[in-house]
Design goal:
13 helices; 287 residues; 71% helix; globular; 2 strands; mainly alpha
Length: 287
Protein backbone atom coordinates (compact mmCIF):
# COMPACT_ATOMS: atom_id res chain seq x y z
CA UNK A 1 0.00 0.00 0.00
CA UNK A 2 2.84 2.39 0.80
CA UNK A 3 4.39 1.68 -2.58
CA UNK A 4 1.08 2.31 -4.34
CA UNK A 5 0.67 5.64 -2.54
CA UNK A 6 4.19 6.64 -3.55
CA UNK A 7 3.48 5.93 -7.23
CA UNK A 8 0.17 7.81 -7.01
CA UNK A 9 1.97 10.79 -5.48
CA UNK A 10 4.68 10.72 -8.16
CA UNK A 11 2.15 10.61 -11.00
CA UNK A 12 0.01 13.40 -9.51
CA UNK A 13 2.93 15.70 -8.68
CA UNK A 14 3.32 17.14 -12.24
CA UNK A 15 -0.42 17.89 -12.38
CA UNK A 16 -0.31 19.61 -8.98
CA UNK A 17 2.72 21.66 -10.00
CA UNK A 18 1.15 22.80 -13.26
CA UNK A 19 -2.15 23.64 -11.55
CA UNK A 20 -0.33 25.47 -8.77
CA UNK A 21 1.82 27.57 -11.09
CA UNK A 22 -0.76 28.39 -13.76
CA UNK A 23 -4.03 28.31 -11.80
CA UNK A 24 -3.82 28.68 -8.02
CA UNK A 25 -0.91 31.11 -7.81
CA UNK A 26 -2.42 33.56 -10.36
CA UNK A 27 -5.78 33.27 -8.59
CA UNK A 28 -4.40 34.19 -5.16
CA UNK A 29 -2.17 36.86 -6.72
CA UNK A 30 -5.30 38.31 -8.34
CA UNK A 31 -6.97 38.52 -4.92
CA UNK A 32 -3.92 40.36 -3.55
CA UNK A 33 -3.93 42.78 -6.51
CA UNK A 34 -7.57 43.66 -5.78
CA UNK A 35 -6.43 45.44 -2.60
CA UNK A 36 -4.05 47.69 -4.53
CA UNK A 37 -4.27 50.58 -6.94
CA UNK A 38 -1.80 49.34 -9.52
CA UNK A 39 -1.05 49.25 -13.23
CA UNK A 40 0.37 45.74 -12.83
CA UNK A 41 3.99 46.82 -13.20
CA UNK A 42 5.65 49.50 -11.07
CA UNK A 43 3.02 51.91 -9.73
CA UNK A 44 1.37 50.10 -6.82
CA UNK A 45 -0.36 51.57 -3.76
CA UNK A 46 -2.18 49.61 -1.08
CA UNK A 47 -5.77 50.89 -0.84
CA UNK A 48 -7.45 48.24 1.29
CA UNK A 49 -11.11 47.81 0.42
CA UNK A 50 -11.34 50.92 -1.79
CA UNK A 51 -11.71 48.86 -4.98
CA UNK A 52 -14.57 46.90 -3.45
CA UNK A 53 -16.29 50.08 -2.26
CA UNK A 54 -15.93 51.46 -5.77
CA UNK A 55 -17.39 48.24 -7.15
CA UNK A 56 -20.54 48.62 -5.03
CA UNK A 57 -21.19 52.10 -6.46
CA UNK A 58 -20.14 51.40 -10.06
CA UNK A 59 -23.22 51.63 -12.32
CA UNK A 60 -21.38 50.12 -15.28
CA UNK A 61 -20.27 47.12 -13.20
CA UNK A 62 -23.86 46.67 -12.01
CA UNK A 63 -25.14 46.71 -15.59
CA UNK A 64 -22.38 44.31 -16.72
CA UNK A 65 -23.30 41.94 -13.88
CA UNK A 66 -26.97 41.98 -14.86
CA UNK A 67 -26.04 41.34 -18.50
CA UNK A 68 -23.79 38.44 -17.46
CA UNK A 69 -26.59 36.93 -15.36
CA UNK A 70 -29.06 37.36 -18.21
CA UNK A 71 -26.66 35.73 -20.64
CA UNK A 72 -26.11 32.95 -18.10
CA UNK A 73 -29.86 32.30 -17.99
CA UNK A 74 -30.04 32.00 -21.78
CA UNK A 75 -27.09 29.63 -21.81
CA UNK A 76 -28.40 27.44 -18.98
CA UNK A 77 -31.89 27.14 -20.46
CA UNK A 78 -31.27 26.99 -24.20
CA UNK A 79 -27.75 25.59 -24.49
CA UNK A 80 -28.37 22.70 -22.12
CA UNK A 81 -32.03 22.32 -23.12
CA UNK A 82 -31.37 22.14 -26.86
CA UNK A 83 -28.47 19.75 -26.26
CA UNK A 84 -30.77 17.42 -24.29
CA UNK A 85 -33.43 17.47 -26.99
CA UNK A 86 -30.90 16.76 -29.73
CA UNK A 87 -29.35 13.92 -27.71
CA UNK A 88 -32.75 12.27 -27.21
CA UNK A 89 -33.55 12.60 -30.93
CA UNK A 90 -30.19 11.26 -32.13
CA UNK A 91 -30.31 8.37 -29.65
CA UNK A 92 -33.55 7.22 -31.27
CA UNK A 93 -31.98 7.18 -34.76
CA UNK A 94 -30.82 3.77 -35.95
CA UNK A 95 -28.91 4.88 -39.06
CA UNK A 96 -26.76 7.98 -39.59
CA UNK A 97 -26.29 8.84 -35.91
CA UNK A 98 -22.54 9.33 -36.42
CA UNK A 99 -23.21 12.06 -38.99
CA UNK A 100 -25.36 14.02 -36.55
CA UNK A 101 -22.82 13.58 -33.75
CA UNK A 102 -20.11 15.10 -35.92
CA UNK A 103 -22.36 17.88 -37.22
CA UNK A 104 -23.63 19.00 -33.81
CA UNK A 105 -20.18 18.82 -32.20
CA UNK A 106 -18.40 20.70 -35.01
CA UNK A 107 -18.96 24.27 -33.61
CA UNK A 108 -17.14 23.28 -30.41
CA UNK A 109 -13.83 22.88 -32.25
CA UNK A 110 -14.09 26.34 -33.85
CA UNK A 111 -12.34 29.10 -31.91
CA UNK A 112 -14.44 31.77 -30.25
CA UNK A 113 -12.68 34.46 -32.28
CA UNK A 114 -13.65 32.75 -35.56
CA UNK A 115 -17.26 32.39 -34.44
CA UNK A 116 -17.34 36.03 -33.39
CA UNK A 117 -16.00 37.14 -36.77
CA UNK A 118 -18.51 34.88 -38.55
CA UNK A 119 -21.50 36.40 -36.74
CA UNK A 120 -20.10 39.90 -37.20
CA UNK A 121 -20.33 39.30 -40.94
CA UNK A 122 -23.80 37.77 -40.58
CA UNK A 123 -25.11 40.81 -38.65
CA UNK A 124 -23.42 43.38 -40.93
CA UNK A 125 -25.90 46.07 -41.99
CA UNK A 126 -24.66 46.68 -45.53
CA UNK A 127 -23.84 43.22 -46.86
CA UNK A 128 -24.44 40.80 -43.99
CA UNK A 129 -26.09 37.44 -44.62
CA UNK A 130 -29.31 38.27 -42.77
CA UNK A 131 -29.87 41.57 -44.54
CA UNK A 132 -29.00 40.09 -47.92
CA UNK A 133 -31.72 37.48 -47.36
CA UNK A 134 -34.19 40.23 -46.43
CA UNK A 135 -33.28 42.28 -49.52
CA UNK A 136 -33.68 39.23 -51.77
CA UNK A 137 -37.19 38.84 -50.33
CA UNK A 138 -38.01 42.47 -51.09
CA UNK A 139 -37.78 43.64 -47.45
CA UNK A 140 -35.87 46.48 -45.82
CA UNK A 141 -32.49 46.06 -44.18
CA UNK A 142 -32.50 45.74 -40.39
CA UNK A 143 -29.99 47.10 -37.89
CA UNK A 144 -29.46 43.96 -35.85
CA UNK A 145 -27.11 45.33 -33.19
CA UNK A 146 -29.11 47.93 -31.26
CA UNK A 147 -29.30 48.77 -27.57
CA UNK A 148 -32.42 46.60 -27.28
CA UNK A 149 -31.20 43.60 -29.26
CA UNK A 150 -27.39 43.45 -28.90
CA UNK A 151 -27.40 41.08 -25.92
CA UNK A 152 -29.76 38.68 -27.70
CA UNK A 153 -27.58 38.78 -30.80
CA UNK A 154 -24.55 37.87 -28.70
CA UNK A 155 -26.49 35.11 -26.93
CA UNK A 156 -27.28 33.32 -30.22
CA UNK A 157 -23.66 32.44 -31.19
CA UNK A 158 -22.84 31.78 -27.53
CA UNK A 159 -25.58 29.15 -27.33
CA UNK A 160 -24.78 27.68 -30.76
CA UNK A 161 -21.04 27.34 -30.11
CA UNK A 162 -21.33 24.95 -27.15
CA UNK A 163 -24.57 23.03 -27.70
CA UNK A 164 -22.50 20.20 -29.20
CA UNK A 165 -20.38 19.87 -26.07
CA UNK A 166 -23.36 19.15 -23.82
CA UNK A 167 -25.00 17.13 -26.59
CA UNK A 168 -22.11 14.63 -26.49
CA UNK A 169 -22.33 14.38 -22.68
CA UNK A 170 -26.07 13.70 -22.78
CA UNK A 171 -25.79 11.25 -25.67
CA UNK A 172 -23.15 9.28 -23.79
CA UNK A 173 -25.24 9.28 -20.61
CA UNK A 174 -28.37 8.10 -22.43
CA UNK A 175 -26.37 5.39 -24.21
CA UNK A 176 -25.35 3.92 -20.83
CA UNK A 177 -28.97 3.29 -19.79
CA UNK A 178 -29.68 -0.46 -20.15
CA UNK A 179 -32.19 -1.41 -22.86
CA UNK A 180 -33.96 -3.62 -20.31
CA UNK A 181 -35.45 -0.53 -18.71
CA UNK A 182 -37.08 0.57 -21.97
CA UNK A 183 -38.20 -2.95 -22.86
CA UNK A 184 -39.89 -3.29 -19.48
CA UNK A 185 -41.52 0.10 -19.95
CA UNK A 186 -42.85 -0.95 -23.37
CA UNK A 187 -44.42 -4.07 -21.86
CA UNK A 188 -46.11 -1.83 -19.28
CA UNK A 189 -47.58 0.29 -22.07
CA UNK A 190 -45.50 3.41 -21.44
CA UNK A 191 -45.36 5.73 -24.49
CA UNK A 192 -42.31 7.45 -25.96
CA UNK A 193 -42.76 10.75 -24.10
CA UNK A 194 -43.42 8.96 -20.84
CA UNK A 195 -40.19 6.99 -21.33
CA UNK A 196 -38.38 10.31 -21.57
CA UNK A 197 -39.92 11.80 -18.42
CA UNK A 198 -40.04 8.66 -16.27
CA UNK A 199 -36.88 6.81 -17.33
CA UNK A 200 -34.39 8.83 -19.37
CA UNK A 201 -34.37 12.15 -17.53
CA UNK A 202 -34.47 10.69 -13.97
CA UNK A 203 -31.50 8.44 -14.81
CA UNK A 204 -29.36 11.27 -16.18
CA UNK A 205 -30.18 13.95 -13.58
CA UNK A 206 -26.56 13.84 -12.41
CA UNK A 207 -25.34 14.60 -15.94
CA UNK A 208 -27.89 17.40 -16.32
CA UNK A 209 -26.65 18.93 -13.07
CA UNK A 210 -23.05 18.72 -14.25
CA UNK A 211 -23.90 20.39 -17.56
CA UNK A 212 -25.84 23.17 -15.84
CA UNK A 213 -22.92 23.91 -13.51
CA UNK A 214 -20.49 23.94 -16.44
CA UNK A 215 -22.82 26.21 -18.44
CA UNK A 216 -23.29 28.64 -15.54
CA UNK A 217 -19.62 28.93 -14.67
CA UNK A 218 -18.59 28.98 -18.34
CA UNK A 219 -20.97 31.82 -19.20
CA UNK A 220 -19.20 34.10 -16.71
CA UNK A 221 -15.97 33.70 -18.70
CA UNK A 222 -17.50 34.83 -21.99
CA UNK A 223 -15.28 37.50 -23.51
CA UNK A 224 -14.20 37.06 -27.12
CA UNK A 225 -17.68 36.71 -28.65
CA UNK A 226 -18.95 39.89 -26.98
CA UNK A 227 -15.74 41.79 -27.63
CA UNK A 228 -15.57 40.89 -31.32
CA UNK A 229 -19.27 41.26 -32.16
CA UNK A 230 -20.27 44.33 -30.12
CA UNK A 231 -17.30 45.38 -27.93
CA UNK A 232 -19.88 45.75 -25.16
CA UNK A 233 -21.96 48.27 -27.09
CA UNK A 234 -23.90 50.03 -28.26
CA UNK A 235 -24.01 52.25 -25.16
CA UNK A 236 -22.75 49.30 -23.04
CA UNK A 237 -26.00 47.43 -23.65
CA UNK A 238 -24.08 44.16 -24.11
CA UNK A 239 -21.27 44.86 -21.65
CA UNK A 240 -20.48 41.79 -19.54
CA UNK A 241 -18.09 41.30 -16.66
CA UNK A 242 -15.43 39.80 -18.92
CA UNK A 243 -15.29 42.76 -21.31
CA UNK A 244 -15.51 45.33 -18.51
CA UNK A 245 -12.70 43.61 -16.61
CA UNK A 246 -10.56 43.64 -19.78
CA UNK A 247 -11.22 47.34 -20.31
CA UNK A 248 -10.27 48.28 -16.77
CA UNK A 249 -7.22 46.02 -16.49
CA UNK A 250 -5.65 46.37 -19.94
CA UNK A 251 -7.13 49.47 -21.61
CA UNK A 252 -7.38 51.78 -18.60
CA UNK A 253 -4.30 50.19 -16.94
CA UNK A 254 -6.20 49.84 -13.66
CA UNK A 255 -5.17 46.26 -12.86
CA UNK A 256 -6.29 46.53 -9.24
CA UNK A 257 -9.89 47.29 -10.14
CA UNK A 258 -9.81 44.71 -12.93
CA UNK A 259 -8.71 42.14 -10.36
CA UNK A 260 -11.65 43.16 -8.18
CA UNK A 261 -14.02 42.48 -11.06
CA UNK A 262 -12.36 39.09 -11.56
CA UNK A 263 -12.96 38.26 -7.88
CA UNK A 264 -16.62 39.20 -8.35
CA UNK A 265 -16.86 36.80 -11.30
CA UNK A 266 -15.39 33.95 -9.25
CA UNK A 267 -17.70 34.63 -6.28
CA UNK A 268 -20.81 34.72 -8.49
CA UNK A 269 -19.76 31.52 -10.24
CA UNK A 270 -19.14 29.67 -6.98
CA UNK A 271 -22.40 30.84 -5.43
CA UNK A 272 -24.52 29.88 -8.43
CA UNK A 273 -22.75 26.54 -8.82
CA UNK A 274 -23.43 25.82 -5.13
CA UNK A 275 -27.10 26.79 -5.46
CA UNK A 276 -27.53 24.70 -8.61
CA UNK A 277 -25.90 21.73 -6.93
CA UNK A 278 -28.25 22.03 -3.96
CA UNK A 279 -31.40 22.49 -6.05
CA UNK A 280 -30.62 19.45 -8.21
CA UNK A 281 -29.29 17.35 -5.38
CA UNK A 282 -30.10 13.75 -6.04
CA UNK A 283 -28.87 10.33 -5.04
CA UNK A 284 -26.52 8.53 -7.38
CA UNK A 285 -28.48 6.12 -9.59
CA UNK A 286 -26.91 2.74 -10.25
CA UNK A 287 -28.05 0.27 -12.84
Amino acid sequence: MKGDKLFIFLFLTPAFLIAGVFLYYPFFENIVQSFYKTDGFFNSTFTGLDNYRRLLSDEIARGATLNSLQLMLYVAVFQVGIALILAVMVDSIKHGARFFRTTFFFPVVISGAAIGLLFTLIYNYRNGLLNEILVSLGLERVLWLTEQSSLYMVAIPTIWSYVGFYFVIFLTAIGKIPDDFYEAATLEGITGFQKLTKITIPLIVGDIKTCLILAITGSLKIFELVYIITRGGPARSSEVLGTYMYQKAFVDSNVGYGATLAVLMVVIGLLLAFVTNKLLKSEEVTY
